[in-house]
TrEMBL record:
Gene3D superfamilies for the chain: Aspartate Aminotransferase, domain 1, Type I PLP-dependent aspartate aminotransferase-like (Major domain)
Pathway entry: Amino-acid biosynthesis; L-serine biosynthesis; L-serine from 3-phospho-D-glycerate: step 2/3
Signal peptide region: none
InterPro entries (UniProt xref): Aminotrans_V_dom, Aminotrans_V_PyrdxlP_BS, Pser_aminoTfrase, PyrdxlP-dep_Trfase, PyrdxlP-dep_Trfase_major, PyrdxlP-dep_Trfase_small
Name by which UniProt lists this protein: Phosphoserine aminotransferase
Aminotransferase class V domain location: 9-355
Broadest EC class assigned to this enzyme: transferase
NCBIfam families: PRK05355.1, serC_1
Family assignment from sequence similarity: Belongs to the class-V pyridoxal-phosphate-dependent aminotransferase family. SerC subfamily.
Keyword DNA-binding: no
Molecular functions per Gene Ontology: O-phospho-L-serine:2-oxoglutarate aminotransferase activity; pyridoxal phosphate binding
Length: 370
């Protein structure tokens, strides 16, 4: 399906939504389910919204195979808000928490957490972020409140694959903001799994938090009610007005994922998309350069330079200009690292990825003299 005037949006987030979802939203904007109002006009405490809310929770549980001993919460504040909420809720009687810092977002999480708990980094982070150090060299223990990691570093294109880190008998906390439902997920050893919806699951403003039940009720006394897992669970995520439009959007995206065959089918498609782009990079004789260790290359955010390891600003500007002329937008790398970043979230089709691949091949043919 294609709509006239639509760009191929490779943005890192807020990101592309499936066109089927956008069309359904357009259709129901003035009259949701024959109620004569839009979802964003409905009371969050109405019976009708309650049905939508509970259906959305059930879809998450079904698609991710969320075990029964986990609660699913809809919160606000983005993934960044959870950087504070996690130590506020999980500190309990512990003195410290362990953090795996592999990029910008896990680094920010550790910095924020220091306000509420002592933070220990299991290894000394080293820039530039291009890999995950061997776990045999990590220093962490069973006295930590939890072990935190970012499953996919959006800025640097580093993803924990194929499995989560070793937990060492403490709850794992996973930031899955940028690979939420991009692949099957194993909840083994996890205490909290969270992510913003604006990359793979909907619109900005909604944060989905999946919490193991035995960790609930350990919040610090200073924990704001809107960040308290216990408070949110007691009120079925309706302690205050939730992002009703965001929940509705996520509901439609979840139905779209289910119709596509679920997470395994989505994952296989994501492997094809990322494999197509990484293949061009690897076959370019160094014209395109991805610094990330191949074991940890993200299938969501493909980051690379043009013209060599340090990049050539002139070539990269020309590449981006040509991409826009070919209807592709938001391929510029994060301002902190530069270069090119192609975010291949679930809504990006294989056909759209092929447009980028074709341009990469054309551009390399013109400029690569190696």
């Amino acid at each position: 399906m294609s709509l006239a005037g639509r760009k191929i949006n490779f943005a890192a987030g807020p990101a592309k939504l499936p066109e089927e979802v956008l069309l359904k939203m357009q259709e129901e904007q003035l009259n949701f389910n024959g109620l004569g109002v839009s979802v964003i006009e409905m009371s969050h405490r109405s019976k009708e919204f309650g049905v939508l809310l509970n259906e959305t929770i059930a879809l998450i549980r079904e698609l991710m195979n969320v075990p029964d001993n986990y609660e699913i919460l809809f919160m606000q504040g983005g993934g960044t808000g959870q950087f504070a909420a996690i130590p506020l809720n999980l500190k309990g009687n512990h003195e410290h928490a362990d953090y795996i810092v592999t990029g910008a977002w896990s680094s920010k999480a550790a910095e924020e957490a220091q306000k509420y708990i002592k933070v220990k980094k299991v290894f000394q982070p080293s820039k530039p972020y291009v890999t995950v150090p061997d776990q045999e060299g990590w220093v962490h223990d069973e006295k930590a409140a939890y072990l935190y990691y970012c499953a996919n570093e959006t800025v640097h294109g580093i993803e924990f694959t194929p499995t989560a880190p070793e937990s060492h008998n403490v709850p794992l906390v996973a930031d899955v903001s940028s690979n939420f439902m991009a692949r099957p997920f194993d909840f083994k050893d996890h205490g909290v799994v969270f992510g913003g919806a604006q990359k793979n699951l909907g619109a900005a403003g909604l944060t989905i938090v999946i919490v193991r039940k035995d960790l609930i009720g350990k919040q610090q006394g200073i924990t704001p009610a809107v960040f308290s897992y216990q408070e949110m669970i007691a009120n079925n995520s309706l302690y205050n007005t939730p992002p009703t439009g965001g929940i509705y959007t996520t509901n439609l995206v979840l139905k779209w994922i289910k119709a596509k065959g679920g997470l395994q089918a989505i994952y296989e498609l994501n492997l094809k998309k990322s494999g197509l782009i990484y293949g061009i990079i690897d076959d370019s004789n160094g014209f395109y350069h991805c610094a990330v260790d191949k074991k940890y290359r993200s299938i969501m955010n493909v980051c690379f330079r043009i013209g060599g390891p340090k990049g050539n600003d002139k070539l990269e500007e020309e590449f981006l200009k040509g991409a826009v002329e070919r209807n592709m937008i938001s391929l510029k790398g994060h301002r902190s690292v530069g270069g090119i970043r192609a975010s291949l979230y679930n809504a990006i089709s294989l056909e759209e990825t092929q447009v980028l691949a074709t341009w990469m091949n054309e551009f390399a043919k013109i400029h690569n003299t190696n």
